[in-house]
């Protein structure tokens, strides 16, 4: 009941009884340019009495909190609508459905929180540009926005700006029905990874800006997403790339994508500190040390080598210790060995001398006889 009353009051505020030819208070109207501007006038609502000739409508820098379909009734001709810099937190169902030729909608710098699933449903598929830069109240609002974008038929959209919204992840399928989108701005968010199926439906994308985010690397799933947009130029700089084995696949891909990356010189390692400012495109050598062995098994191998070394060292020590304990016996043994050797040698020497002296051998022969 309360909601209903609010709605009625709200409708009364938005819809004028008769649209006058004159200009609403706080606005500047130019019939020649078919343009109406209501800029920074502390307006709390969309003003009433906007002339029907209006093609370009700028209601910016005011304090509007909520917009619904009643606000724009009769404004069939609007092509460009900017509601930038207000405090819009709620967009009702089919708010823009009265526009028959809307091509550009700017909702940047607002505080969108409650976004009806059918908020952007329009009759004709005419919308080409949609600007949500700095438009969300917080990153949780992207869930509502994703639903609304999927429900609206935005297959004519060419450009979508979602920059500066503190986004952490992109919900899967958020761009599913934007098969004609050419330019997607996601710069200056906090996106930590490009997740599975988040770029699904963007096969005609020509430019993707992911610079100034929180990407440390691209996972296998993220790399698959990049493969979904084979024609797109990529902005990937100003991310805290972490140069460990986990980034190897991304670097391999970079080398094949090089001509598609607009800001290749800005792709540098940020962590670990010893690789800071090291170009990702030149980092191949650095990561090839991974030898394609997963980090965990590599570690296991290293620890097993260390363990083997310790065991061998211990055995060696034991051996030396045993030798030390037996040192007297060994000494005796060595002396004995030396004595036997000496005796043998002397015996041999003696016999040799006997053999080499002919007289002695004669003597021995005659003695034999
Ligand atoms: C837009 O849709 C209306 C009906 O909703 C139709 O009369 C009009 O011709 C359409 N305009 C264009 C440009 O398709
Ligand atoms: C969106 O709006 C912001 C702020 O008004 C502006 O800086 C940016 O250029 C707009 N984006 C596009 C794609 O026009
Ligand atoms: C976003 O705003 C809503 C409404 O105030 C709040 O409930 C939610 O906790 C906020 N989310 C974050 C991540 O701050
Ligand atoms: C980046 O986004 C934050 C809000 O998330 C904003 O305050 C800041 O001005 C933005 N920076 C640029 C350069 O647009
Ligand atoms: C992510 O991708 C994997 C295959 O790589 C698939 O099995 C999984 O279902 C996907 N998850 C989502 C949420 O789409
Ligand atoms: C990295 O490079 C930038 C400019 O190229 C420089 O300002 C910065 O001091 C460098 N940082 C380190 C740790 O070398």
UniProtKB/TrEMBL annotation:
Where are the bilayer-spanning segments?
305-325
State the signal peptide span. 1-20
Report the InterPro entries cross-referenced here.
Answer: Leu-rich_rpt, Leu-rich_rpt_typical-subtyp, LRR_dom_sf, LRRNT, Wnt_signaling_inhibitor
Q: Where is the LRRNT domain?
A: 22-56
Cellular component terms per the entry's GO annotation: plasma membrane
The UniProt record lists the keyword Transmembrane: yes
Q: Which GO terms describe its biological process?
A: negative regulation of canonical Wnt signaling pathway
Pfam families on file: LRR_8 (PF13855)
- Keyword tags: Leucine-rich repeat, Membrane, Repeat, Signal, Transmembrane, Transmembrane helix
The molecule here is called: Trophoblast glycoprotein
Species this protein is from: Bagarius yarrelli (Goonch)
